Amino acid sequence: MQFNRRGFLRSASLLAGLSLTEMEAMAALQQVSTGGKPVADDDETYWQNVRQLFPLTREWAYLNNGTMGPSPYPVIEAVRNGMMDGDHHGGYGGWENTAKKLAAFVGADENEIALTHNVTDGINITCWGVPLRRGDEVILTTHEHVGNAFPWLNRRKLHGIVIKTFTPAATAVETLERIEALITNRTRAIAVPHIPCTQGQVLPAKEICTLARERGIYSIIDGAHGPGMLMLDLHDMGCDTYASCCHKWMLGPKGTGFLYVRKGFQNTLQTYFVGGGSDDGKWNMALETPKMGKYADSAHRYYGGTQALGLYKGVDAAIDFINTIGMQNIHNRIQMLGGYTQQRLLLLGDRVELITPTEARSRCAVNGFRIQGVDYAKFYTQCAENKIRIRMVAENGLNSLRVSTHIYNTTAEVDMLIAQVKKALG
Ligand SMILES: Cc1ncc(COP(=O)(O)O)c(C=O)c1O
Questions:
Q1: Are the beta carbons of 64 and 408 closer than 8 angstroms?
Q2: Is the CB of 148 under 6 A from ligand 1?
Q3: Using one digit for the tens of pLDDT, what is the confidence trace for 223-277?
Q4: pLDDT tens digits for 369-413?
Q5: Which end is more exposed in the chain, N or C (fewer Cβ atoms within 10 Å of the end residue's Cβ)?
């Protein structure tokens, strides 16, 4: 795909990180529109044009999208304009459209999407809403992020549930076998990440949900890394809930997220946090016996009150941005970069341990590794000193490193990391 440089009237400003007008951002976006056509995952001319749309500094190799996905200009502009919408006319509301857009993006219905602020919100709503008694068992992994671990640990502390864990295996089949081996007649929920934050392994979510359904167990997925990385179809996956955010792989505004709750599960998952919008409008406090009415007949029952219109306009723009490039093109590009990272790490010999599976269906854009004889924190600092941003994985005693690559990255940036690993190996 060819790039017409005249479209970038202010490419110098882009590189300097200055703001674009909405029109300029839209014009620049049109330059990378694929019109639904495939783009090769190694078409560097095309992907460099995409890179121009990010104010992300070029002074660093940012290989940590798994923590935070930097937004492109059209998203940043949409946030500003969304705020202007409300602040200029004094209007209220307007964020409901985002639930509809998110639903289409992840293969759900509009009435199955609750707007949240992050993954943690969605996990807490689910964890507290699932009917569990003392002694009931929930299955998690040994690779949890605090956002999925702590709510369940807290429920164990307060309500006496039992947590069982497994370590994701090198293949999807073996991972499923490990889960199945933990199921007893007290198992009520499988509450696992689609992609653990630690080493980015893609778990066989559809098979896990099928297994759960067959055994009468709730399937509760921590989907922090799914949308924007994988081709998602939540109806096809068959999960009961999927908690996610828009600020990682979707490249949306920070502090935006969503919780998918399957329609047929909404009367099972109790809502506790309610207010304006989570009701049916029939409450009345002026009656002799104040009347409650019902919960909203949708996932709106899980959230209420005023939302940040600007941020949700940014989420709309993030979905438009992804669709302009094409989710399949994005998936292919980041899977290629993830595969390239694996190959390069594997070439470094026995002292470098790749801890992400190489099985095609179990990997995508995130990789974890250790360097034998090299302290992970020291290596992290070495990278930072050389302007490479990766992540340390200190949680769960894993003491490893994580590298995650999105569409704005290049194989050259991966090579910069590899050069640092070589240096550390001596
Ligand atoms: C797997 C996983 N779950 C949960 C979270 C928490 O996400 P948030 O900060 O959006 O609540 C993260 C964040 O990195 C994560 O990687």
A1: no
A2: yes
A3: 999 999 999 999 999 999 999 999 999 999 999 999 999 999 999 999 999 999 9
A4: 999 999 999 999 999 999 999 999 999 999 999 999 999 999 999
A5: C
110 φ/ψ angles, rounded to the nearest 5 degrees: -55, -35
Hey, CA dihedral for 77, 83, 86, 87, is it positive or negative? negative
Report the alpha-carbon distance of residue 188 to residue 139 in Å, rounded. 8
Of 8, 96, 88, the closest CA to residue 53 belongs to 8
Are 258 and 244 a contacting pair, CB within 8 Å? yes
Domains and CATH numbers, the chain: 60-426 (3.40.640.10)
Residue identified by tokens 């019902």 is 294
Q: Is 43 helix (H, G, I), strand (E, B) or coil?
A: coil
How many A from CA of 246 to the centre of ligand 1?
11
Q: What is the 412 CA–ligand 1 centroid distance (Å)? A: 28
Cα(146)–Cα(154) distance, rounded to whole angstroms? Answer: 11
132-181 pLDDT, tens digit each = 999 999 999 999 999 999 999 999 999 999 999 999 999 999 999 999 99
Q: Which atom of ligand 1 is nearest to the CA of 195?
A: 1
The tokens describing 391, both together, are 């992540």
Q: Is 224 in the pocket of ligand 1 (CB under 6 A)?
A: yes
Ligand 1 geometric centre to CA of 152 (Å): 14
Token readout for 87 is 């602040």
Does residue 245's CB lie within 6 angstroms of at least one atom of ligand 1? yes
Strand 61-62 relative to strand 388-389, pairing: parallel
End-to-end CA distance of the chain: 41
For residue 250 and ligand 1, the question of a CB distance below 6 A is answered with no
Which amino acid, one-letter code, is at 42? D
Ligand 1 centroid – CA 144 distance (Å)? 9
Residue 14 reports pLDDT greater than 50 = no
| Rounded-to-10 torsion of CA 196, 201, 202, 203 | -70
What is the reported pTM?
0.95
Element spanning 410, H or E: none
State the DSSP H helix or E strand holding residue 402, giving kind and residue range, or none if neither.
Answer: strand 400-404
What angle (nearest 5°) sits at the alpha carbon of residue 196, between those of residues 365 and 407?
A: 20
Q: How many CB atoms lie within 10 A of CB 188?
A: 21
Compute, in angstroms, the gap from residue 245 CA to the centroid of ligand 1: 8
Spatial CA neighbour of 166 closest among 147, 190, 188, 134: 190
Candidate from 64, 142, 244, 245 with most ligand 1 atoms within 8 A of CB, to mutate? 245
